[in-house]
Amino acid sequence: MLPTAARLTKNQDFRLVVRRGRRAGRPRLVVHVLRPDQYRARRASGEATPEAQANTAPTRDSTPSTRVGFVVSKAVGIAVVRHRVARRLRHLMRDRLPDLPAGTLVVVRALPPAADASSRELGADIDAALKKLRVRLPDGPDGS
């Protein structure tokens, strides 16, 4: 299960990541990534940043957490199939969270071929997309 602090839940955050972030398409999914340095400039302009919206309670650790959201539309399949795909993607991203820079926002959008894909294939697509976007930390499993 993905920790609550690692979930992207607000519609505005999804929109921000998809519109302002970079994306990498794969056969079964599209990964959108917005790095912290890309949205910190918004703070100077007076706009609300995702980190300000997410951290409503004061904490000792002021570093923003990496958060992930998923989009699995009806085009992927019936509800049972969509939920299965979402569960697989959540599990795969949970294992990759430590490899991403703190404060990174990620949206994973499943495409219809994801319905028939195995977890291994989905994981390979996620890894390839993250590698293409160059967001994994150097000590990550991809060795970049």
Explained architecture:
This protein has about 140 residues and is an alpha+beta fold. The protein contains six helices and four strands; from the N terminus they run αββαααβαβα. It has a domain at about 25-40 and about 65-135: 2-Layer Sandwich (Ribosomal Protein S5, domain 2), CATH 3.30.230. Helix content is about 40%, strand content about 15%. It has a four-stranded mixed sheet with strand order 1-2-4-3, with helices on both faces. Helix 5 (about 80-95) links the parallel strand 3 and strand 4. The radius of gyration is 15 Å and the shape is globular. The mean pLDDT is about 85. It catalyses: Endonucleolytic cleavage of RNA, removing 5'-extranucleotides from tRNA precursor. Consists of a catalytic RNA component (M1 or rnpB) and a protein subunit. This is Ribonuclease P protein component.
SSE diagram, text form:
Elements: H1 11-20, E1 22-25, E2 29-34, H2 36-39, H3 41-44, H4 50-54, E3 67-72, H5 79-96, E4 105-110, H6 119-133
Parallel strand pairs: 3-4
Antiparallel strand pairs: 1-2, 2-4
